[in-house]
Design brief:
591 residues; alpha+beta; seven-stranded mixed sheet; five-stranded mixed sheet; 20 strands
Length: 591
């Protein structure tokens, strides 16, 4: 699980974490709100059941009934009382009322279940409370089926008005002659040809037949509400048995359906009778009252917030990191020219980009250095191979000649030539080793303060035989000092003097000048043909012998390269320039 989580992008992970954090706070609040909503729905149901009892007392008073002269059961007055109460009390809270009539007989008055429709121009109420649950379910199915086939219906939560044509016939007795007291108690009822019979027989004195009616009020909006009504009626049956003494008194509180109903029982109307009313705990209505579209709005806002948070994290963190990774891949592939990190950011990603830029710059420099070094190595190997190939070929040729039967004079001459070529090869190898050693040296180990004046004079004395056939002039300043390696500096000065003697003609001029100025520390001039300007910077490259005159003078092309390496270790450099009638080499400060 942890491995899978780590494979998810940063933005998705942070969004998931924020979603969990929000859920930790939101879920308890939602649970608490639902608990409060349920508690409120139960309180409202309890108050509704209690108000039913109070409404009954008020209605009996308003209708002019006397507690001492209540009608007996199954009389015309009893039926009239039921019809009058239906006109004033709604049916969503079923009840049972047990009272005593004038003869002290126990009378049970049950709430009605009304099918309301227009019969001609009069509104008619048909009591369906005495029909079985099976019959009511079949009626419900008929209305629902007809509604679906005919079109939409008007949903009224606890009841609905189906749209369609209905042919309704009923046989039984009728109370009243016109609305709103036109009340029909059926023994049988027929709806669109399907007939049902009531549980308790009723004398069939009236045949009610309606024209096809599209205005019909059916008490059950849904099957769930119908089943809830059945549960309430069953519970009221238990209460009725208890109140009429047919079973032991069950007490005040109900024992079933406490999660679906709230009950209220008590004496009423001057203690004449006991009434029990049931009120449905309508969580749906309370949910609408408490959270009207709030869950959907909350979920929508929750998802929108997470989406915006995800986009922000993607834009501020994930995408820049992806860009940084892409730039890092460019560096890894050595595509330094395409490397363009975002250095304007001042956050951690900006720091990462700047560190990556520094790394790329260092790597680029080192790569260029390594590439230059590799080029130099290839040039070195190529030039060395070229310079070694000729003496080796000569040595091989002379050796073959010696192997033949030749004269002693030729044998001696060939041996001398072999010795000469061998010395030349030894010199080349030594210079190659010296250059390689200097190329790998970063700083001098034997650095000390030297008298450069004395050193130059000693070297001039040492190389004096080279200038016997040339006009040498020297201007050596006194007291010139420098920190460096004496052996290497002697070699550098000797290289300049040897180079001047080698490339100047007989009786040519050679001038040496030493000053205290770091910009013109040592100057060596000699007469010779001018060097092409484009070749002047290359004189200090390995194995470079540019013009034909310099090539004819011999040498391996490593002297000036070694000179430049020695001077670089002392913070100096050497540059060449053409002058009138010759060439000047200037040793000066590297900066």
């Amino acid at each position: 699980m942890t491995k899978r989580f780590r494979k998810i992008g940063i933005a998705a992970r942070l969004t998931a974490i924020v979603a969990v954090i929000l859920a930790v706070f939101v879920v308890p609040w939602v649970i608490h709100s639902f608990m409060k909503m349920k508690e409120s729905a139960q309180t409202i149901a309890s108050a509704s059941a209690q108000n039913r009892v109070l409404d009954m007392s008020a209605q009996l008073d308003s209708l002019g009934y006397d507690p001492e002269h209540m009608p007996a059961a199954d009389t015309q007055e009893y039926d009239l009382l039921r019809s009058q109460l239906i006109s004033h009390l709604d049916e969503d809270r079923p009840y049972v009322y047990v009272y005593h009539n004038e003869q002290e007989e126990t009378v049970v008055l049950r709430s009605a279940l009304v099918l309301d429709f227009l019969s001609g121009n009069d509104e008619c109420k048909i009591d369906l409370s005495d029909f079985s649950e099976t019959a009511l379910r079949e009626m419900q199915a008929l209305f629902v089926k007809n509604t679906i086939s005919s079109g939409a219906f008007i949903d009224m939560a606890s009841a609905f008005i189906p749209n369609g044509d209905y042919n309704i016939q009923a046989w039984g007795k009728q109370i009243g002659t016109k609305a709103p007291n036109l009340f029909f108690i059926p023994n049988r009822i027929s709806i669109n040809g399907q007939e049902w019979t009531a549980l308790t027989p009723v004398e069939e004195t009236v045949h009610l037949q309606s024209a096809q009616s599209r205005q019909l009020y059916w008490p059950f909006g849904t099957n769930a509400y119908m089943e809830t009504y059945f549960d309430a009626v069953r519970e009221l049956n238990e209460w009725e048995l208890s109140m009429t003494g047919k079973v032991p008194d069950r007490g005040i509180e109900p024992v079933r359906n406490a999660d679906r109903f709230r009950w209220y029982s008590g004496t009423m109307w001057n203690d004449n009778g006991v009434m029990v009313a049931a009120s449905v705990i309508d969580l749906k209505a309370e949910f609408v009252s408490w959270f009207y579209r709030m869950p959907f709005i909350t979920i929508a806002l929750y998802l929108i917030f997470l989406f915006i948070f995800y986009k922000i994290v993607r834009r501020m963190v994930a995408d820049p990191l992806v860009d940084t990774a892409r730039e890092a891949n460019l560096v890894a592939n050595l595509a330094f020219d395409e490397f363009k990190p975002d250095l304007k950011r001042r956050d951690e990603i900006g720091e990462l980009n700047r560190a990556l830029s520094d790394m790329a710059s260092t790597l680029h420099t080192r790569w260029d250095s390594e590439r230059d070094l590799e080029d130099k190595r290839q040039q070195f190997v190529s030039a060395a191979s070229h310079d070694l190939k000729t003496p080796l070929a000569l040595i091989g040729g002379y050796a073959e000649a010696i192997a033949q039967d030749i004269s002693p004079e030729e044998n001696a001459r060939y041996l001398a030539a072999i010795e000469q070529e061998t010395d030349r090869m030894n010199g080349l190898v030594r210079e190659m080793l010296d250059y390689t050693r200097l190329d790998r040296t970063d700083e001098l180990k034997n650095r000390k303060t030297l008298n450069l004046t004395a050193l130059v004079r000693d070297v001039l004395t040492e190389y004096a035989p080279l200038f016997e056939k040339r006009r040498l002039t020297a201007d050596i300043a006194d007291g010139v000092r420098i920190r460096g390696d004496e052996t290497l500096l002697r070699r550098a000065v000797g290289c300049l003097l040897e180079n001047a003697a080698k490339y100047s003609p007989e009786n040519g001029r050679v001038s040496v000048r030493l000053t205290n100025s770091r910009n013109h520390l040592l100057t060596v001039e000699n007469d010779c043909e001018p060097i092409p300007e484009d070749e002047l910077p290359r004189l200090f490259e390995m194995f470079y012998r540019g013009d034909k005159a310099r090539d004819r003078a011999g040498g391996h092309g490593l002297g000036l390269a070694i000179l430049q390496k020695i001077l670089a270790l002392h913070g100096l450099t050497c540059k060449a320039e053409n002058i009138k009638g010759g060439v000047r080499f200037i040793v000066c400060n590297k900066d």
